[in-house]
Amino acid sequence: MEQVELTQGTVRYTDTGGSGPVVVLVHGLLVNGSLWRDVVGPVSRHARVVVPELPLGSHRLPMRPDADLSPPGLARLIADLLDALDLREVTLVGNNTGGAICQLVATRHPERLARLVLTNCDAYRNFLPPAFRPLQLLPRIPGALWLAAQTMRSRLVRKIGFGPLARTGVDPERLADWVQPALEDSGVRRDVGKVLRGISVRYTLEAAERLREFDRPALLAWGRPDPFFKPAFAERLAADIPGARLAWIDDSATFVPVDAPEQLAELIVDFVQNGKKGADRLVG
Fold first, then answer.
1. Which phi and psi (to 5°) does residue 57 adopt?
2. In angstroms, rounded to a whole number, what is the distance separating the alpha carbons of residues 139 and 74?
3. Less CB within 10 Å around the terminal CB: N or C of the chain?
4. Shortest CA distance to 190 belongs to which of 76, 55, 7?
5. Closest by alpha carbon to 135, among 119, 152, 123, 118?
6. pLDDT tens for residues 138-191?
C-alpha cells in the first residue's frame, strides 16, 4: 500500500493509477479497504480507483494522539486526502459508517466531488443503528475496548459479530485481517474509541438537511434485505437529495461490496460514464 502524510497522521491507501475518472471507495467502522476487494478490479477497468484505509478500528497506522476523529474530523481527513493526492472530479462511494462520513464530505467539503454514491449506510437518526449502539459504551469503561478486541480472537465470535452484515458471509481471512490491528495496537484502540465517542445523530441529521441542496448526481445502490439499514432509509434519501436515483440490490445486506460486488461495480461504472441517465436505466 502507498501512504500519505496528513495533519491527522499517516494514511495508507491503494491506487490503481491511470488517467480515467477517479472513484474513491470509503469503508466503514471496524473494517478496512479490503471490504472493496472484489469491486476494485471491475471498476478499475474503467476508472482510477483509490481506496483509503481510514482510522476506524481496522487500520494499521494509528493517527496522531491529537487527531480529530469525530465524524466532521473524519470528513475533513477524506477531504485532506483528496487534496494531498490532487484528486479531482471524484466519484465518492461510501458503505456503512463510511456512507455517513461521505454525506459529511458532500455537504461540508464538496469542492473535489463530481458524484456521490451511497450504499447501505448510516443516515438520519440511524447513526449508529440500535443493534450497534452498545459499542459506544466501550470507550467509557476502562479496559473494555481491549477486552472486546480480545474476544475477536475467536473465529466463532468474528463470524457471529460480522455475520448479519453480509448474506453471503465474509471469508475467514478477511475477517482476521479486519480484527488484527485492534488486537495488536493500543493506538488503534485509542483511535476507534475516539471515533465511537464522537458519533452522534446530530451529524447525520445535519447532513441530511444540507443534502437537500446537493447539486451533483447522486446514486443510492441499496441492498434491500438489510436488517440494519432498511429500504426506508434509501427511499427517504432518494427523496431528499435532488435528482438522486435509487437502484435496489435484491440479494445483499449491509456489506454490498461483499454480497454483490459485480452488480455494484456495474452500477458505479455506468453512473460514472452516464451520470443520471445511467442511474435511470439501472433503477430496480
1. 110, -5
2. 18
3. C
4. 55
5. 152
6. 999 999 999 999 999 999 999 999 999 999 999 999 999 999 999 999 999 999
| Helix/strand/coil (H/E/C) assignment for every residue in the chain | CEEEEECCEEEEEEECCCCCCEEEEECCCCCCHHHHHHHHHHHHCCCEEEEECCCCCCCCCCCCCCCCCCHHHHHHHHHHHHHHCCCCCEEEEEEEHHHHHHHHHHHHCHHHEEEEEEEEECECCECCCHHHHHHHHHHHCCCHHHHHHHHCCCHHHHHHHHHHHCCCCCCHHHHHHHHHHHHHCHHHHHHHHHHHHHCCHHHHHHHHHHHCCCCCCEEEEEECCCCCCCHHHHHHHHHHCCCCEEEEECCCCCCHHHHCHHHHHHHHHHHHHHHHHHHHHHCC
**pLDDT at res. 18:** 84
To the nearest whole percent, how much of the chain has pLDDT over 90?
Answer: 95
The amino acid at 44:
S
User: pLDDT digit string (tens) for 62-117?
Assistant: 999 999 999 999 999 999 999 999 999 999 999 999 999 999 999 999 999 999 99
Q: What is the pTM of this model?
A: 0.94
